[in-house]
Amino acid sequence: MSSDAIPTTENQPQDSLISSAAGRGAPMPVVLTLGAVAIAALVACGMLWQRVGNMQEQLARQSAQSGAQSVEARTLAKDAQDLARDSAARVSVMEARVGELNLQRNQLEELMQSMSRSRDENLVADIESAVRMAQQQAELSGSLQPLVATLKSAKKRVEGAAQPRLAPVIRAMDLDLDKLSRMSVTDTTGVLTRIEDLTRQVDDLPLINDVGRLRSRAPESGQASAEQAAADAALSPTQWAWWQGQGHRLWVAVRDGASDLVRVRRIDHPEVALLAPEQGYFLRENLKLKLLNARLALLSRQWESARTDLSSASAMLSKYFDTRSRRTEAALTQLQQIQTNLHSTEQVKLDDTLTALATAAAGR
Questions:
Q1: Under 8 Å CB-to-CB from 120, ≥6 apart: which residues?
Q2: Tens-of-pLDDT digits for all 364 residues of the chain?
Q3: How far apart are CA 98 and CA 155, in angstroms?
Q4: Is 143 helix (H, G, I), strand (E, B) or coil?
Q5: CA neighbours within 13 Å on the CB side: how many for 280?
Q6: CA distance 360 to 292
Q7: Which chain regions cross the lipid bilayer (predicted)?
Q8: Residue 38 to residues 15, 29, 208, 212: CA-CA distances in angstroms?
Q9: Local structure of residue 116 (DSSP, 8 states)
Q10: Residue 189, C-beta contacts closer than 8 angstroms, at least 6 positions apart
């Protein structure tokens, strides 16, 4: 509605009242009152209209601001949607990369585990091979030193690997090392060396009826006499030392001659004195064969056979060789020591270590 229509409709009753009051002859105060009321009503209507207009303008401004804010909000929403789509795309790319990294990490861990497992398997296989070889060497040589050294070296290698699953192997090695420390074995290598030394000494051992070896001492006494004669030549025949030297040489000559003429010796086995010189050679060769058989028996781990051959060799030395000779006494003593130290050795078994290595190789 327009601004001119409002006062027109409102003033029509008032004009009619004024005209009617004037026509009737109403009093002046009433007229003035009515006029004041009409003016107040007009002023109120104007103020109300102005306020309504202000409200309309404010609503228009607010509507315009709301529209601008709505447009801005739609723009921001669109930007937010674009940003969200971009972020979602980036998140998808990052998730894909994270998935690839996880896959690569898993593959790397599997590769490292495979390499570690392969290294441990190679270590276990190497140690098992070394232990079995040392065990065979110990069985052949009769010495536990190579086996003990191999176990100690293998224990250090396993400890250096620092793998928890190889801990049972270390415990098994400790048990076997303790078991080996309580075992008593024959030093086969040392015994074989002593038997070889005895074999080389057989040709130098004197027989009981070996007269030629006794006569071989005569040149030595003659050489001593020559030295004594050279010393006496520097003396004068008038000196007592010269006469004493001459008497000593005469006594030695008479004694040696008498000993060559008659020799008394106790012989427990009469057949020994009847041995011909050429039979002495076969006797020595037979003794060498006895020692060689004992050596072969030791190498083949036949302890009883080795004892029998050594006892037979000792009996031959006591029966056919001169026991008063230092060489014969030394040979007999050496044979007795060998027989004393010779005892059967139980088979070396490293069941604990080999079982632990087999378990570790199986991956259990």
A1: 161, 163, 165, 166, 360
A2: 334 444 444 444 444 444 444 445 457 888 888 888 888 888 888 888 888 888 888 888 888 888 888 888 888 888 888 888 888 898 988 988 888 888 888 888 877 766 666 677 778 888 888 888 888 887 776 677 888 888 888 888 888 877 777 888 888 888 888 888 777 666 677 788 888 998 998 888 888 766 544 444 444 444 445 555 555 555 555 556 666 766 777 777 666 655 555 555 555 555 655 566 777 788 889 999 999 998 888 887 787 888 899 999 988 888 888 888 888 899 999 888 888 877 655 566 777 888 888 887 776 5
A3: 43
A4: coil
A5: 20
A6: 45
A7: 30-49
A8: 10, 14, 181, 185
A9: H
A10: 141, 142, 143
Q: Which of 352, 360, 364 is nearest to 173 (CA)?
A: 352
Burial class (CB in 10 A: 0-12, 13-18, 19+), 65: exposed
Q: How many CB atoms are closer than 10 A to CB 293?
A: 18
Joined tokens for residue 134: 């040392």
Q: What is the pTM of this model?
A: 0.44
3-state class (DSSP) for residue 223: helix
Residue whose structure tokens are 């004694």:
255
Q: What share of the chain is helix, strand, coil (3-state, %, to 5)?
A: 85, 0, 15
* Coil/strand/helix, residue 159: helix
Query: 208, 267 in Cβ contact below 8 A?
Result: yes
Rounded CA separation 54/318 (Å): 152
Q: How far, in Å, CA of 321 to CA of 318, rounded? A: 6
